[in-house]
Amino acid sequence: MSQTVGRTRGAYHRLWHTTSLAHPSTPPLGRLASRIAVLLMGKHKPTFDPSTDCGDYVVATDCSDVFVTGKKMQKKKYYSHTTRPGSLKEINMEGMVRKWGGAEVLKRAVRGMLPKNRLRDVRLDRLKCFEGAAHPFGANLVKIGGKRVRYLAGASTPVAQAQIQGSVGAEVVGSKEGQSAREVMEKSV
User: Fold this and answer.
1) DSSP 8-class letter at 149
2) What pTM value is reported for the model?
3) Cα–Cα separations (whole angstroms), residue 98 to 18, 30, 61, 87, 104
4) pLDDT tier for residue 23 given thresholds of 50, 70 and 90
5) 2 in helix, strand or coil?
6) What is the SS3 assignment for 158?
7) By C-alpha distance, which of 133, 59, 134, 131 is closest to 98?
8) Between vectors from CA 14 to CA 17 and to CA 115, what angle results, nearest 5°?
9) How confident is the model at residue 7 (pLDDT cuts 50, 70, 90)?
10) Is 96 in a helix, a strand, or coil?
11) Are the CB atoms for 21 and 32 separated by under 8 Å?
């Protein structure tokens, strides 16, 4: 029996969430950034504690299609200063997207919505942004569009998962290392 009282490391299981900024139902930048910040902090979990890092991973794809309302793309300014006299530089959001990409705009928006403490950079490292739809974290994803997904053995992407699932007609179930797709499918029926 464990002698540890309270929350242990095992209680902080991290899930992988994904969002595509090219999807028509994606909210504007500010609303999306606040939702991502909640996931990175772990405020949606019953084990949330402000002093510990218990958040999830978030993968944002198609960041080049970042959506903002009004004239923010031309009027929103980003400032930087090197602490040398006369070195204040400003760039608008449109220039930021051209120069650094939409991922930098999204990261700066999320960074502003995270608490300003020692955990901010650690939490922000779990936000993975990509300009296109392709990313290397397909095998890690557990939630797609808010729905829980577990990959069948042999499926490394959501497309492969859908092909396997469509051909079998079974529910999406998890697989462990060393299990074949046939064993997983037999357990699901």
Assistant:
1) -
2) 0.72
3) 24, 19, 17, 22, 10
4) confident
5) coil
6) helix
7) 131
8) 80
9) low
10) helix
11) yes
Cα separation, 161 vs 111, whole angstroms:
33
Q: What is the pLDDT of residues 79-136, one digit of tens each?
A: 999 999 999 999 999 999 999 999 999 999 999 999 999 999 999 999 999 999 999 9
Classify burial at 46, counting beta carbons within 10 Å of its beta carbon; exposed 0-12, middle 13-18, buried 19 or more: exposed
Asked if 126 and 56 touch (Cβ cutoff 8 Å), the reply is yes
Q: Which H helix or E strand runs over 95? A: helix 93-100
**At residue 164, what is the residue type?**
I
Concatenating the DSSP letter of every residue in 25-93 gives: TPPPHHHHHHHHHHHHHTTTSTT--TTS----EEEEE-GGG----TTHHHH-EEEE--SSTT--EEEEH
- Name the residue type at position 69: T
- Separation CA 5–CA 92 (nearest Å): 51
pLDDT digits (tens, 9 = 90+) for 110-123: 999 999 999 999 99
